[in-house]
Amino acid sequence: MPDHARILIIDDDEDIQDLLFAALDDEGFIVDVAGDGSRGLQLIQSNEYDLVVLDINLPGLNGYALCRELRDHLHVSVPILMLTLRSSVDERVEGLNAGADDYVCKPFEISELIARIRALLRRGRPVVGHILRVDDLELDLERKQATRGGQPVHLSPIHLKLLATLMRDSPNLVSRETLATQIWGDEPPDSDALRAHIHTLRAAIDKPFERALLQTVPKLGYRLG
Q1: Is 127 strand, coil or helix?
Q2: What would the mean pLDDT of 136-159 be, rounded to a whole number?
Q3: Which value, in Å, is the radius of gyration of the alpha carbons in the chain?
């Protein structure tokens, strides 16, 4: 889960806004608030959020429409927790089909809501379609092609596997053991082999560019973002 995660609350109920802002701020999150779908969309397009808490019954652009816009047209992969008075199975399914990652009905216990938020943050960003994105780095899982800033990045099958694992969990830490298992299964070679592959991957995705995305966390693993 990212440190000091930034969360956007999109809800037109000022009491809910105040409740969520105070609770999430107490938990150490950075919190922004929007009172309608259009303003929420503007904030998402101009800022980098780790999670969005989205009400369905919004004036103008409602939660379903906003969620579909983010997923289907803008290809934004930020985790979305839908928050609503609606509780029927059909309505929950509609929210999830629109692209939400989880669903909480009002009234809610703030402790449960925070637990669900933390669980979504631990998962990292979901895959939208077959494209993974971190910053200006993209990986097309179907074509097995990577680009950064629109420029092709040529990677071997092993490096594509490494990159996909790191991108799926971005910006979370991925342990050396997890990466080794993704490549070699239950019989990984010595640690120098993984280190060599990471070195080659870093040279491909970071060296030609101004900002480095692949970070080493000594003795623990690696993170991307």
Answers
A1: coil
A2: 88
A3: 19
**Long-range contacts, 3-6 (Cβ 8 Å, 24+):** 4/28, 4/29, 4/30, 5/29, 5/30, 5/50, 5/51, 5/121, 6/30, 6/31, 6/32, 6/47, 6/48, 6/49, 6/50
Residue 153: strand pairing partners: 146
pLDDT at 37: 95
| pLDDT per position as a tens digit, 37-79 | 999 999 998 888 989 999 998 998 999 999 999 888 887 878 8
**Residue 8, Cα to own-chain centre: how many angstroms?**
13
Rounded-to-integer distance, Cα 105 and Cα 170, Å = 28
Q: How many CB atoms lie within 10 A of CB 208?
A: 11
Q: What is the pLDDT of residues 182-196, one digit of tens each?
A: 777 766 666 578 888
Q: What is the set of domains in the chain, with CATH numbers?
A: 6-123 (3.40.50.2300), 131-224 (1.10.10.10)
Judge contact between 100 and 79, C-beta under 8 A: no
Q: Give CA–CA dist 63/74, Å, rounded.
A: 15
Name which of 2, 35, 1 is nearest 17 in CA terms. 35
Gap between the Cα atoms of 192 and 182, Å rounded? 16
Give the Å distances, CA to CA, from 55 to 9, 58, 67, 98, 218. Answer: 8, 7, 10, 13, 40
Residue 60 DSSP code: S
Q: Rounded to whole angstroms, how far apart are CA atoms 83 and 101?
A: 11
Q: What is the DSSP string of 139-188?
A: EETTTTEEEETTEEE---HHHHHHHHHHHHHTTS-EEHHHHHHHHHTT--
Q: Say what the pLDDT of residue 128 is.
A: 52
